[in-house]
Q: What sequence folds into this?
């Protein structure tokens, strides 16, 4: 585990470094202009009041330069604050955008095998709330800490010159508020901070799952119970937030108190100094306002450090995710692209987790170039696992799979996927037009090619009824394609890819008999001459295949021509799963 997660995350701000330094300089200028404005105004008001005591002193008093200085500081502070906000926030948003891209890139090699282990809501939470909370590192910790340090040096230095005793008191109080209090708050805030991060993640995950499964929750009348669980999570979050808010209240009160004490000490010592004639009266106003301005710069620090635990927890969650090892890696020195598309599985075994029952054992199977093999078997017999290994989503624990004579592990994954079109069990429809969804299969396809694929996948009739045709928006915020339509869009994508190898997992699932017949005809044309693995529960699909295997409990129980395998399937336990 990363020991210093915030540092590790901050290292990723390299592209924004210049902008961040500029933002820091602007923040320092703003703070100094603010202090200058307060101090000069305080001095000016007091000094002009003193000067106004007699006509001679009033006439001799120089009003012009200080008032010009005040105006100058005011304009400078406004301008630099505006620029500072612009620059620091722009740098932060760019930094966060970079983090999101980094996280998404880290997720790609984990898909699909490792991502299946993650809860969707949790991943979403990492990409959004966790990343967002990292804005605090630069905006709320680094910049204010440096600004406060400079303010202490400046104000402390001026006070030391004017009134050393007052300076000592102010600096001690400033160090208490600027260092001791933040460190204490960091420690005390760590537990509620982590509790907030964890409770936020839990709440989001439960809400996302609830929204996704709302139809089922409603039918089972479990929505009320789910809502109660959400409220329970919310209560936990609010309890942690209340603890945090109480801490914020205490720390703000303590910082405020320290500021007032500093002002009081200056007033007491200053008045004594004026009485003793060692300090001009207006200097007291200057010192008091300087101290107040200094504490204004210090107040954000305890609050920022109090939330550091939460920020650190978020950073750790991101780094932990990015450090997940992909199950499959590209070889360091990939083999040359093999000639031919024959797939040979030799004595392949796979189990999902150590200690699990093997999902596959002793699989020997040849998919010769252009040959179509159907895989039958009851639910849980290992059919999808077989497809996952052939697609190299996972590597076998034992045995080997070769493509054109080369072990899949020696090939870059991209080389394998370049040759394969895959119809998964769950056809993913992306939010976009039907055309967008199809172009995933072949980005360069022209209208005629798209139309042919739509026709072959049995979609033409449906598309013709849509006023916008292929430009109809489907998926989120569009037409919700039915299960069968989604399946056929995915099938059209496969057709468009025009790949030499096809892996089809239940291609006709969710289709009625008549449509299934049409699709099987289309699949017959599509798969002819291509190396094909078709997983199915439906005997009708067997007519596509030249050979078939029957899986049972992770093994190939029977292998042969489809009719024989189907016959063999009937007496075994698999019968009821295979029959339509
Ligand atoms: N991600 C996973 N983690 C752990 N075990 C898994 C995982 N996926 C599948 N399994 C297990 O592996 C075995 C084979 O599952 P597989 O999905 O390959 O079966 P299948 O024949 O495709 O089933 P179905 O026809 O229902 O899709 C099952 O016992 C299943 O519980």
A:
């Amino acid at each position: 585990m990363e020991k210093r997660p915030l540092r590790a995350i901050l290292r990723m701000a390299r592209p924004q470094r210049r902008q961040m330094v500029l933002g820091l300089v602007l923040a320092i200028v703003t703070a100094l202009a603010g202090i200058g404005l307060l101090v000069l105004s305080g001095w000016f008001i007091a000094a002009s009041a003193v000067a106004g005591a007699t006509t001679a002193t009033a006439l001799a008093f120089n009003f012009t330069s200080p008032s010009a200085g005040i105006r100058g500081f005011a304009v400078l502070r406004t301008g630099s604050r505006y620029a500072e906000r612009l620059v620091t926030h722009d740098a932060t948003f760019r930094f966060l955008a970079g983090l999101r891209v980094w996280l998404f890139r880290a997720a790609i090699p984990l898909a699909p095998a490792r991502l299946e282990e993650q809860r969707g809501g949790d991943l979403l939470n990492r990409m959004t709330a966790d990343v967002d909370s990292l804005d605090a590192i630069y905006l709320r910790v680094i910049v204010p800490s440096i600004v406060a340090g400079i303010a202490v040096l400046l104000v402390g230095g001026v006070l030391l010159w004017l009134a050393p005793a007052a300076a000592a008191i102010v600096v001690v109080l400033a160090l208490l508020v600027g260092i001791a209090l933040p460190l204490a708050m960091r420690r005390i805030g760590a537990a509620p901070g982590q509790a907030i991060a964890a409770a936020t993640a839990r709440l989001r995950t439960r809400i996302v799952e609830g929204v996704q499964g709302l139809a089922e929750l409603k039918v089972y009348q479990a929505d009320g119970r789910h809502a109660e669980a959400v409220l329970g999570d919310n209560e936990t979050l609010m309890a942690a937030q209340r603890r945090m808010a109480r801490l914020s209240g205490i720390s703000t009160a303590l910082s405020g108190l320290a500021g007032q004490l500093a002002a009081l000490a200056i007033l007491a010592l200053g008045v004594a100094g004026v009485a003793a004639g060692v300090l001009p009266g207006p200097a007291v106003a200057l010192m008091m306002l300087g101290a107040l301005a200094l504490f204004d710069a210090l107040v954000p620090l305890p609050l920022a450090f109090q939330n550091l635990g939460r920020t650190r927890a978020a950073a750790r969650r991101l780094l932990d995710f990015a450090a997940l090892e992909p199950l499959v890696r590209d070889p360091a020195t990939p083999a040359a692209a093999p000639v031919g598309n024959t797939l040979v599985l030799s004595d392949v075994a796979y189990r999902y987790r150590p200690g699990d029952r093997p999902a596959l054992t002793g699989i020997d199977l040849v998919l010769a170039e252009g040959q179509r093999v159907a895989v039958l078997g009851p639910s849980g017999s290992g059919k999808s696992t077989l497809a996952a290994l052939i697609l190299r989503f996972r590597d076998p624990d034992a045995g080997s799979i070769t493509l054109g004579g080369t072990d899949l592990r020696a090939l870059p994954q991209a080389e394998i996927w370049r040759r394969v079109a895959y119809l998964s069990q769950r056809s993913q429809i992306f939010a976009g037009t039907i055309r967008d969804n199809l172009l995933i299969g072949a980005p360069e396809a022209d209208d005629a090619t798209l139309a042919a694929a739509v026709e072959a996948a049995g979609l033409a009739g449906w598309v013709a009824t849509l006023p916008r045709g292929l430009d109809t928006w489907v998926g989120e915020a569009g037409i919700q394609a039915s299960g069968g339509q989604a399946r056929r869009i995915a099938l059209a994508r496969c057709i468009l890819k025009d790949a030499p190898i096809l892996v089809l997992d239940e291609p006709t699932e969710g289709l009625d008999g008549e449509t299934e017949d049409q699709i099987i005809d289309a699949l017959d044309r599509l798969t002819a001459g291509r190396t094909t693995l078709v997983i199915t529960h439906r005997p009708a699909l067997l007519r596509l295949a030249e050979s078939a295997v029957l899986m049972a409990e992770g093994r190939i129980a029977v292998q042969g021509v489809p009719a024989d395998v189907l016959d063999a399937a009937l007496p075994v336990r698999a019968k009821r799963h295979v029959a339509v």
About this structure: The CA atoms of residues 95 and 338 lie 42 Å apart. The chain has 21 helices and twelve strands. Residues 116, 352, 359, 377, 379-385 surround adenosine-5'-triphosphate (CB under 6 Å).
